[in-house]
Structures are given as structure tokens and as C-alpha cells.
Amino acid sequence: MKKADIDEFFTRLQGADDAPRTELDYVNPYTLLVAVVMSAQATDVGVNRATGPLFKVADSPEKMVALGEEAVREHIKTIGLFNAKAKNVIALSQILLDKHGGEVPRDRDSLEALPGVGRKTANVVLNVAFGEPTIAVDTHIFRVGNRTGLAPGKTPLHVETKLNKVVPDRFKLNAHHWLILHGRYICKARKPECPKCIVEDLCAYKAKTI
Questions:
Q1: String of DSSP letters for 73-94
Q2: What is the C-alpha to C-alpha distance for residues 116 and 85, in angstroms, rounded to an integer?
Q3: Measured between alpha carbons, how far is 76 from 15 in angstroms, rounded to an integer?
Q4: Is residue 149 a part of any domain in this protein?
């Protein structure tokens, strides 16, 4: 995609939604971190359904550790991989207490050192909680980046690297949200809704739906 088209691409997405936000419910950086860890192989709706009651009783590392792994598991048993996620949430909460004064660290290396936290999760936390212009490549962004020609790549890191190069600086803070929402609701995996797409004419996808 040409530079001018990329600029127009994000100008239109911004025009449609000037203040995009994550669809995960959270109340502070810690609950955001937990919610993103929970979201692996799960829908945001499903995660919110489980974490709503959980965060009412445990919205800090101290409260989560006190609650215990078994109780956390019971709260999130409707989410995929709930056993591993409960274990990771307790473990990362303890590390936050032991090494970070109970606070969520603002640097990538410290975040990625936490159990259950990979590059994508770290990018989400840095972007949403701390306002860093990071782009977290999930399945939606990976698909949109490749399908549209915006940032084609064989791996999520490849797509992320390309997006960081081509997305104009003024759009980088919100690019993550715009691309996820576009992939979730318009540029869907099985059948993209091209007739509803506001960037359809800029997109390189050849098999557009009619």
C-alpha cells in the first residue's frame, strides 16, 4: 500500500471512531494486565463475563494472591485454558508484589518476564495503560495487515515491525484499536464485509465480497 493510501486509510478509520478503546473491561493497569492474559484464545465478551465478578473481589495483586488459585479458577472456568490462566495470574501477581512493589511495570522486558505475558500482551498494556504508541498484533491485526496490503508478513512480529514503519506517527497511539475493531467487525476472517468497508477502495484484497 502506498504512503498516501496508508495516510488516507487511517484518516478514514479515525473519522469513523475518533476515540477507540479496548473492549476488555478493566479498572486499573493491574486488572487490564489480568484481562489481557485471560483473553488468549477467548473472546473479549467471554473474558468480561468472567472478570467482572472477579475484579469486584480482587482488583490488586494483594487481593488476587489472597483469593488464591482455586478461587480464581472457579471465577474463570468458562474461559478457555482457565487452569493455566489461573496459575499464571497468581504467579504474576506474586511477582508484582515481590519485585515491583505491587505495581504493573511500564517496560517491555519486565512485562514479558511475567508468567502468561508475551509480546502482544505487553504491547496492549503499554498502549492502553500507559499511552505508549505500541501495536499489538493479534489474529485480527495479522489478517488485516496481510489482506489489505497494509503490512504483509509471515509472522505477527513481522507484521508489527512493518506497521511500526508505515503507520504515520500521529495515528500510532490508536492504530492498534482501529485495526482490531476493523478486523473484528468488518474485515472478518471467513467473509469480510467489503460493502460496509470505508477503506475498501484502498485495500489490495482481490477476493472482495459483493
A1: HHHTTTSTTHHHHHHHHHHHHH
A2: 7
A3: 37
A4: yes
- pLDDT score, position 210: 79
Q: How far apart are CA 50 and CA 193, in angstroms?
A: 30
3-state secondary structure of 117: coil
Buried b (16+ CB within 10 A) or exposed e, 17-46: eeebebebebeebbbbbbbbbbbbebebee
Q: How far is CA 147 from the centre of its chain?
A: 19
Task: Clarify whether 44 is annotated catalytic.
Answer: no
Which is the catalytic residue, given 120, 154, 169, 196?
120
Domain range for 71 is: 29-128
Q: 102 and 172: one domain? A: no
Average pLDDT of the chain to the nearest whole number: 95
Catalytic site includes residue 138: yes
Confirm whether 209 is domain-assigned: no
Q: Give the residue among 208, 124, 100 at the shortest CA–CA distance from 173.
A: 124
In 3D space, the residue among 117, 105, 115 whose CA is nearest the CA of residue 40 turns out to be 117
Span 101-151, pLDDT tens digits: 999 999 999 999 999 999 999 999 999 999 999 999 999 999 999 999 999
Q: Choose, from 25, 99, 107, 138, the residue flagged as catalytic.
A: 138
* Cβ atoms of 40 and 82 closer than 8 Å: no
- Whether residue 196 is contained in a domain is answered as yes
Q: What is the dihedral of CA 111, 114, 118, 123, to 10 degrees?
A: -20
